[in-house]
Structures are given as C-alpha cells and as structure tokens.
TrEMBL record:
The lineage of its organism: Bacteria, Bacillati, Actinomycetota, Actinomycetes, Propionibacteriales. Belongs to the AB hydrolase superfamily. AB hydrolase 2 family. Residues 23-201 form the Phospholipase/carboxylesterase/thioesterase domain. This is Phospholipase/carboxylesterase. Keywords: Hydrolase. InterPro entries: AB_hydrolase_fold, LYPA1-2/EST-like, PLipase/COase/thioEstase.
Amino acid sequence: MADPLDRPHVALPRESGSTGPSLLLLHGTGGDEHDLLPLRELLSPGAAVLSPRGTVLEQGMPRFFRRLREGVFDEEDLSARADELAAFVTAAAEVHGTPPASLVAVGFSNGANIASALLLRHPALLRGAALFAAMVPYAEPPAAELAGLPVLVSNGARDPMIPRARTELLERQLRDRGAVVTDVPHPGGHQLDPEALRRTAGWLASLPTR
C-alpha cells in the first residue's frame, strides 16, 4: 500500500501565542506546496499549516486532479484524488500533531475544487473551508452531511471561468447539505482579492475555538 505521506508538502508547527485556526493550504494549477504559505500571516498568523502539492501533472503543471478540458472535471479522478488527499491529511496530522478536525482548508482555483470534493466525500475530516475562485466540483454531488460546517466562498464578478450563477449553485449545494456558507464576492477576476482575504481573516478569527 502506498505511503499517504509520499508527496511533497510543507508542515509548519503552531507558533507560540498563535490562537487562529490551523490551515490546510491547497494551491491552484501550476502552483506547489510553497505558493500559498504567505497566506498564513495574512489569515491566521502563526497557525499550524499543512500545504501539500497536487500529484497530477497537466502539461508539466501540478494539479490536484485531472480535467477533461477547461471547466470540465474528470469526476472519477476527482473522487479518487480527494480520497488520497484525505488519507494524506489524516497521516500528516498524526505525524505533525495537527488534528484534521482543527484544519480549515484554504484553496485557490484547483485547490478550492479539491477542497469542495474533500468536504463532500469526507465531511467529518475538516473544521471548515475557505474557497477562492471555486467551481462546482460534481454535476451530482454526494449526499454529504455538513451540518453547521463553516464554508466561505469568494469568487470574482469578472471571473471568465465562473459565472455568478455557478457560484450560487455551489453555495446552494453546500447549504442544502447543512453547511453555513458565507459569500464574499469581489469585483476582480480569477484571483485572490486583497479585500476578500482581509474579510476571510476576520471570518477565520470568528470561528469557535477548538
């Protein structure tokens, strides 16, 4: 059986005095385990961090799962990769002393989409999720039980890949499964928006302590 920890990743311990949620950082297409590390100090200063690299390559660019073409996901691969990532999170948490249920996933684009799949396939794994430039992961999403799980969605009004109706569909699918969804739109495109990040930091700070 393959070692679930056998993938490039960064693990940072909690710094003394830090009280914010631990973070599972999930990069976008072409990124790696270092890309989102600066978000630690913006969103949850000194927090414990797990930041894995996606194990799928698309024209040499790391991703977390395959797609058939832009905007069309290979849902079978998405599910398999979400299960692999859940196994990684569980194993890494044991090694690094960061319980999975303390982690809030922070994902951008492809990372946001694998985070959504994690929530839907492993609803008890994480403490919550902040999804940036997020798409609908499944045409027919699993009937997950997300009662009370906090999820923030931040998509841009000028994102050419994600019309507002698709953002609303994603949020509706999550709410229908019990998640408490916070919508943080911004006027930009397929990007991390500074004001949205500031609002996300406040949202993270407001989560109940665990």
